[in-house]
């Protein structure tokens, strides 16, 4: 049975939680989004949506304009849509697979944004899925393409393959390192055409020591080159994380044990907790499980699934009502106690 990537056990087994590929495309006969008028945008969205659904019957079409504020936020928290996609008044469309691992945003920054997410280190498989959807759509519409530059996109950094590949990675030891290693390492990534950002991408801060690492440009590179380069850089970052982890275990194992057990103790007994604090505690608990330092029953759900389900919009959707900050903090604490103290 297919399930969302964050429910797969593999998402909990290493530093890499997920692999994501996005393909940016524009339909040749229409102006770029900033030049579209509402009538053209509506026609373009309908044509692109038909191309997707005719090529892949496993997609269902949603109308973002009809989403409630809570539903919009849930889709952002699930990494299905971007905040930019939900802004603006032009017609837009969203097509999504039943397991929510493949989606197509229509009229975001580009006319068509194909996204494929896989759990764990599965970047090649994510690309293959996105490429299949791309081929199906291109059988019915003509994309803007230049023989010299490749696919033409609204942002020049996407021109070429239109491919933005990314890993979501957990770096708990690098995040708390007492040296300048994290800032030096992260700033050096730009030299390799790679950027590291917060949990929800550009302009966002990391939460729970979770980052997104992705390629910065696509022009002059093949898809295989981009994927291979990102894999190499990411493995180097993970190597640094493991070196820092080993260093902490060798020099001050008791301190590291205290961190993970203290996190488990607070999370499993709290009565009121913010999303930010809960994310940091869950990050330490995940570190404890993956290093074997935390000798407590493993949660039935992957840690990132728990992280997602404690976000504000998820809590509000579960309760079916608007909640103020204090109410969310109480419900979040109740949820953590339930899932940590009754893991099976």
Q: Which helices and strands, and how do they pair?
A:
Blueprint: E1 16-25, H1 38-55, E2 59-62, H2 69-77, H3 83-86, E3 93-97, E4 102-106, E5 112-119, H4 123-138, E6 145-146, E7 150-151, E8 163-170, H5 172-175, H6 181-188, E9 194-197, E10 210-215, H7 223-267, H8 275-291, H9 303-309, H10 312-319, H11 325-341
Antiparallel strand pairs: 1-5, 1-8, 2-3, 3-4, 4-5, 6-7, 8-10, 9-10
Describe this structure in words.
44% of the residues lie in helices and 16% in strands. The protein is built from 11 helices and 10 strands. It has helices at residues 38-55, 69-77, 83-86, 123-138, 172-175, 181-188, 223-267, 275-291, 303-309, 312-319, 325-341, and strands at 16-25, 59-62, 93-97, 102-106, 112-119, 145-146, 150-151, 163-170, 194-197, 210-215. Strands 2-3-4-5-1-8-10-9 form an 8-stranded antiparallel sheet, with helices on one face. Strands 6-7 form a two-stranded antiparallel ribbon. The longest helix is centred in the C-terminal third of the chain and has 45 residues, at 223-267. The chain is globular.
